[in-house]
Amino acid sequence: MSTNAPANPHRAPAIAKGDGSMVRVLVVDDEHSLTELLKMALKYEGWDVRTASDGQSAVRIAREFRPDAIVLDIMLPDIDGLEVLSRVRAEGTETPVLFLTAKDSLDDRIAGLTAGGDDYVTKPFSLEEVVARLRGLIRRSTLTLAQAKDPVLVVGDLTLDEDSYEVSRGGTPIELTATEFELLRFLMRNPRRVLSKAQILDRVWSYDFGGKESVVELYISYLRKKIDAGREPMIHTVRGAGYMLKAAG
């Protein structure tokens, strides 16, 4: 299994939910080193990640955390992954589930999918494969359908149409370059969340973490002149941490 977090600068753009909030993923496996690797890789995607090392904890965390996807090992120390899935489904959730297991027989694959799992990855696997499978499950899930149907992002009086590339604030149209648009889109998909320069470089410019952070400062200043000029500011600098966009007032 790969031990490095995905670092492909050409990977697909980040997934965000229709309301702009972070995708939530629960990882369940009794191998601590494995859960830590998966947690690191999924956090790198910009997702909120929780972990559990046994089935009982997984059921409890799923109830409290309400994940958008679950990565679930079949072999657990108390109740197995199939039972965990059964209990989660019994509570009325249709959260997509990706099974992880050392088993690779056809019977085991069929058992997992018959129990209500959505996909199946056999150990050893690459972190990139797990991330790719999860992205597919989340995109297909009903949790992100609202995003697909409504391309308009709204934060306060600021709107951005992902289909027409039109931006306005308070009903006044704002002309942006392609890069300014991508930067604003990333900020609007993560309202009230502090985004580091490294995160912004990676998402907007597809640079790895060695990219020039000064380019972020430059384009933030461009955006401020167009979005905030003469108005109550929406783009805020969080000293030593990054930038955050939130509704004015």
Short description:
One of its GO terms (cellular component) is cytosol. With about 250 residues, this protein is an alpha/beta fold.
What features would you describe in this structure?
The protein is α/β, with parallel strands linked by helices and 249 residues long. It folds into two domains: 24-143, Response regulator (Rossmann fold, 3-Layer(aba) Sandwich), CATH 3.40.50; 152-245, Arc Repressor Mutant, subunit A (Orthogonal Bundle), CATH 1.10.10. Helices cover 39% and strands 19% of the residues. The longest helix has 14 residues, at 127-140. Mean pLDDT is 82; it is low at 1-11 and 142-148.
Write the layout of secondary structure elements.
Layout: E1 24-28, H1 32-44, E2 48-52, H2 55-65, E3 69-73, H3 81-90, E4 97-101, H4 106-114, E5 119-122, H5 127-140, H6 145-149, E6 152-155, E7 158-161, E8 166-169, E9 172-174, H7 178-189, H8 197-205, H9 214-227, E10 235-238, E11 242-245
Parallel strand pairs: 1-2, 1-3, 3-4, 4-5
Antiparallel strand pairs: 6-7, 7-8, 8-9, 10-11
